Amino acid sequence: QVQLVESGGGSAQSGGSLRLSCAASGYTYSSYCMGWFRQAPGKEREGVAAIDSDGNTSYTDSVKGRFTISQDSAKNTLYLQMNSLKPEDTAMYYCAALWGMTTVQALGADPEADFGYWGQGTQVTVSS
């Protein structure tokens, strides 16, 4: 059974930091491109960051220089270090394992159309 379980969400002040984790199990971790996505109330889900098995990364423009995606393949765990948080970063954050995609393609992944696995999400709230 495939599972992606996110943790590490919570509340932070503007300018603060949080670190999200995603523990993956039930599939061959290294065969998939991994990504972080977020969805704020009333907005569409957007790709935040992605990383492939070679360590190549891509980020959406709004988080470049502030967020860092990384992974520990030995532990099948994905991370998102979020620094200099802003109120507009407030959203539900999801991790995903995406089949057959580059990191750039992964940022535009469609949960309804693209093959992959998705977690249930962890809430991040940033106050000003």
Write a brief caption for the model.
This protein is mostly beta strands. It has one helix and eleven strands, in the order βββββββββαββ.
Features:
1 helix, seven-stranded mixed sheet, mainly beta, 128 residues, 11 strands, four-stranded antiparallel sheet
Overall geometry: globular
Low-confidence stretches: none
How many helices in DSSP terms?
A: 1
| Mean pLDDT value | 95
**N-to-C SSE series?**
EEEEEEEEEHEE
**CA gyration radius, whole angstroms:** 13 Å
Residue fraction in strands: over 45%
- Total beta strand runs: 11
The helical percent reads under 10%
Distance between the termini: 40 Å
Q: What does the main sheet amount to?
A: 7 strands, mixed
Question: Structural class, from helix and strand content?
Answer: mainly beta
